[in-house]
């Protein structure tokens, strides 16, 4: 029997990993999943492919991976077997058969991320690995005005790390929004687009918080989109507040949320 391709949705707490992708300097989410698959297949190496990488400390609620499994197995059996072998900070939430031409990265139409900011006066010990602490007074109206300026098709050079390997820095952001979670005393940023550049969302957040704090004006977003200079934007917000929520393979759902 030829290998069967599977598509899986993965959740992980990125705290203990150098990122999703295999790295020489520490353990990765990819390494743990491939290690589990190797045990299941009697030592055979099964490469996995993801919709994209996430950095050290970044979390995922809906990362998508695919791989070709060399033996006949039902999706639910594969789901249970994998989860029994994975560490507690990684969970496969769904497994389904995929056509052999499906590719989790190349067929992805876009992604949705959230970023959580803890507004408590002092750092909450139970949130410190999952939010960024920002205990300052801020102007919500200015923040809401500024974030909407990021929507649409733009060259996002000012909001991309200079370490990027991409040459085309134009992306479409379909949703850029923020809400106050009163119950948890948090700001929750949401970004949905056809692609995001290296550190793009974290630079968005670092810049937007400066605007909210009154250090920059709302119109700064317009200027940054015009000047295309990373040095003039705000800092890169810490990684632990960032979550990959969903990967879209349907363009209509990507556009409309």
TrEMBL record:
Role this protein plays: Formation of pseudouridine at positions 38, 39 and 40 in the anticodon stem and loop of transfer RNAs.
Complex formation: Homodimer.
InterPro entries per the UniProt record, alphabetical: PsdUridine_synth_cat_dom_sf, PsdUridine_synth_TruA, PsdUridine_synth_TruA_a/b_dom, PsdUridine_synth_TruA_C, TruA/RsuA/RluB/E/F_N
Protein name: tRNA pseudouridine synthase A
Binding site for substrate: 113
Keyword Iron-sulfur: no
Pfam families reported in the protein's UniProt record: PseudoU_synth_1 (PF01416)
Keywords in alphabetical order: Isomerase, tRNA processing
Active site per UniProt: 55
Source organism: Trichococcus patagoniensis
Family indicated by similarity: Belongs to the tRNA pseudouridine synthase TruA family.
EC number: 5.4.99.12
HAMAP family: TruA (MF_00171)
């Amino acid at each position: 029997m030829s290998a069967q391709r599977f598509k899986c949705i993965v959740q992980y707490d990125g705290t203990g990993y150098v990122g999703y992708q295999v790295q020489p300097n520490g353990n990765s989410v990819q390494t743990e999943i491939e290690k589990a698959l190797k045990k299941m297949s009697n030592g055979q190496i099964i490469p996995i492919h993801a919709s994209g990488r996430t950095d050290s400390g970044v979390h995922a609620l809906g990362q998508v991976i695919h791989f070709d499994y060399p033996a006949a197995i039902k999706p639910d059996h594969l789901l249970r077997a994998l989860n029994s072998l994975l560490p507690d900070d990684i969970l496969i939430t769904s497994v389904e058969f995929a056509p052999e031409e499906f590719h989790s990265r190349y067929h992805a139409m876009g992604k949705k991320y959230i970023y959580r900011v803890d507004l408590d006066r002092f750092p909450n010990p139970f949130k410190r690995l999952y939010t960024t602490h920002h205990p300052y007074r801020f102007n919500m109206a200015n923040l809401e005005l500024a974030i909407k300026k990021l929507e649409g098709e733009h060259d996002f050079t000012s909001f991309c790390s200079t370490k990027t390997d991409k040459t085309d820095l134009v992306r479409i952001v379909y949703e850029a929004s923020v809400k106050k979670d009163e119950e948890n005393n948090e700001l929750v940023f949401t970004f949905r687009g056809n692609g995001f550049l290296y550190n793009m969302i974290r630079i968005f957040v670092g810049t937007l918080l400066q605007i909210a704090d009154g250090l920059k004006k709302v119109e700064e977003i317009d200027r940054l989109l015009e000047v295309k200079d990373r040095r003039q934007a705000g800092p890169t917000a810490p990684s632990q507040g960032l979550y990959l929520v969903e990967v879209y393979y349907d363009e209509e759902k990507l556009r409309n949320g």
